[in-house]
Amino acid sequence: MSYIKFEKSQVVNLEYSLAREIIRTNRAGSYSSTTIVGCNTRKYHGLLVCPVDELGGERFVLLSTLDVKVLNNDKSFNLGLIKYKGDYFNPKGHKYIEDFNADNIPSRIFRVGGVIIKQERLLVHYEEQFLLRFTILEAPEPMKIQLRPFLAFRNIHELTHANLAANTKVDFIENGIKSKMYEGFPSLNLQFSTKVEFVHVPDWYLGIEYPEEQKRGYDYSEDLFTPGFFEFKAKEGDMIVFSASTKEEKPSGLKQKFTKTVSGKTPRASFSNCLRNAAQQFVEKRGGKTLLIAGYPWFGAWGRDTFISLPGLALARHKLVLYREVLDTQVDRMKNGLFPNMGNDSNPAFNSVDAPLWFFWAVQQYISQGGEDGWELYGEAAKSVLNAYKNGTAFNIHMRQNGLIYADAPGKALTWMDAVVNGIPVTPRRGYPVEINALWYNAVSFSLEMAGKTNDKSFIKEYEELPALIKQSFLELFWDDKIGYLADYVNDDEGKNTFVRPNMVIAVSLPYSMLDKEQMKKVLDIADRELVTVRGLRTLSPGNLFYKGAYKGNQEERDKAYHQGTVWPWLLGPFCEGWLKVYGQQGLQKVKKLIFGLEAVMSEHGISTISEIHDGDPPHSPQGAISQAWSVGEVLRIIDLIETKYANQ
Fold first, then answer.
1. In degrees rounded to 5, what are phi and psi of residue 67?
2. Which of 95, 131, 200, 636 is 20 to 30 A from 437, alpha carbon to alpha carbon?
3. Residue 146's pLDDT band (boundaries 50, 70, 90)?
């Protein structure tokens, strides 16, 4: 029985099926994404979405969608599904879908009259190539199939409209055509494994709408160009492969290429396999660099997200070489003790106080999993971070006389709670943030441990008295016996902010913690009561005046809810690790229930992966990016922890 399958009754219900999206990547910057019924509901959807180096390396939608029509017995059956203005769908090909299956590769079975056709699609690894295979399972007599490509040739964040600048001409190549709508783009080669006829009738289809963008308060209507349509004959038993690629292919090899690519895939036949497949999709190797994409479809490679997600995405799959490649790439991007939080190499943004401190944690995880050369490789980079924080660096990040890290840059949100509306941080958390100083203590303590093993006497002499000072100051500043948990942040103007947030849980989970067992227990218990849900941890207690239980509306409204109650699955990582640290075997069942309870999301939102966020209020509907690196990574890491440390319990 298939693990991920949607039956006809589910697929034909557009309210259900349009909310379920699927994404595949080529691990070199390209992706293919749409809904399970093939209707694009986002400007980010497309069958072939590629980075274009000549245009700054950003991703561009080349092939948006396909319209497939079956001509049989003088009847025409259109298998496509496109939304236009006023909830008007034309055609309505979803009504012919018998089922959708994603165990191996996304496949749909269509029944039209006496004809049954299977469509399977994939993205070729490390190539800018989308393949679609038609298999004619049943056909009483020969028929014709028409395929009309819809082209966009625009940035994923933008929309396109009919214009006179577009090149509507095509060049004929073997079993197909190639098209290049604008200068600076690569040619898009559209070819088949069989002989086809191409009818050149260039046209713009106007007013195609993307309802998910409309919900998010963005422009949501665009025009797509079609150069014409292909037509070919088919009969029962035939297998035809369509290719869309930035390189011209030899059509005779398309069938074999499809089969070979499929044979190397791990079936998504279980929760664990889904996560491991999803983990691979965040890896991007381009231009000699190895990056982790923070989330699909709109995020880039972010420093903070990289270090938090890396242990789960790499070590939980025993990929030490991948781990080193990612860390090496990040170290090469360091500047003044900081890692770029976002942006590309030509325009990096270093506005993250926590990314450099999560780097230490990532190195700790690497060493604990057998990376014996960890300190040898990354010790100097680690020391440069410590020195920068100790002596002061950008964004007013500096250590004060009490040994704690203080950060305050007007108009900037430097922690992971980084939403900014109209130039004002929603959750500024300026001053001493609790997790930053917990990470700082962990970083210094870990570095001293490594210095002891390598007999680095000068480093030991400079830093050996610091952990005791940090701990004393931290407990005096953040711990409050009356309320029984840690303040979220403290600053010179406001004093203590005691909002119940998940950041204090990080102080429990780290390898070096300043809290005793009783303090850890109290922190976890209040987090359990007020923050823990079946989809992750809320970012603010529902009892707080500023709590937002739903993540919806335009960007400003969504940003105001982003860290004010919205649930984040990645936070299950530190919570579960802390819970096992405090409760041991007795806490195992709770952790298993939380982690394996996420199996339910495999058939929601991003199929076979874990979303970025969920609503704070029940039923905790999935929101944000459909596939998030640290969501997948932290769940994988905890599963690995359970399997290795508690294997027989």
1. -115, 115
2. 636
3. very high
234-248, 344-358, 396-410, 414-428: least confidently modelled range: 344-358
The structural domains of the chain, with segments of one domain joined by +, span 5-253, 271-644
Q: Tell me the three state secondary structure of residue 597.
A: helix
Give the pLDDT confidence of 1-36 residue by residue, as tens digits.
789 999 999 999 999 999 999 999 999 999 999 999
> Do strands 622-623 and 627-628 pair parallel, antiparallel, or not at all (unpaired)?
unpaired
Is domain 5-253 classified as CATH 2.70.98?
yes
Dist CA 174 CA 193 (whole Å) = 10
- Burial of 403 per CB tally in 10 Å (0-12, 13-18, 19+): buried
Residues 564, 578: Cα–Cα separation, whole Å = 23
What's the pLDDT tens digit per position in 575-617?
999 999 999 999 999 999 999 999 999 999 999 999 999 999 9
Q: Is the pLDDT of residue 485 over 90?
A: yes
Evaluate if residue 184 carries a pLDDT over 70.
yes
pLDDT of 634 reads 98
Q: Which helix (H) or strand (E) segment is 221 a member of?
A: strand 221-234
Structure tokens at 288: 């000699």
Q: How confident is residue 73, by pLDDT bands cut at 50, 70 and 90?
A: confident
Q: Give CA angle at 51 (48, 52), nearest 5°.
A: 110
Q: Supply the DSSP string of 227-289, one letter for each residue.
A: EEEEEEEE-TT-EEEEEEESS---GGGHHHHHHHHHHTSPP--SHHHHHHHHHHHTEEEETTE
Of 239, 251, 243, nearest to 117 by C-alpha is 239
Options 1.50.10.10, 2.60.40.1730, 3.30.70.20, 3.40.50.720; which CATH number does 271-644 get? 1.50.10.10
Distance CA 376, CA 589 (A): 38
Tell me how far apart the alpha carbons of residues 638 and 648 are, in angstroms, rounded to a whole number: 16
- Measured CA to CA, the distance from residue 221 to residue 234 in angstroms comes to 35
* Residue 211 near residue 83 (C-beta atoms within 8 A): yes
Say if residues 109 and 118 touch (Cβ distance below 8 Å): yes
164 CB contacts (<8 Å, ≥6 apart)?
none
Q: Give the per-residue pLDDT at 202.
A: 97
Q: Among all chains, which residue has been given the structure tokens 């060493």?
A: 367
Mention every residue, 6+ apart, whose C-beta is less than 8 A from residue 259: none
Please calculate the CA angle 363-296-79 and round it to the nearest 5 degrees.
Answer: 150
Alpha carbons 106 and 5: distance in angstroms, whole number: 10
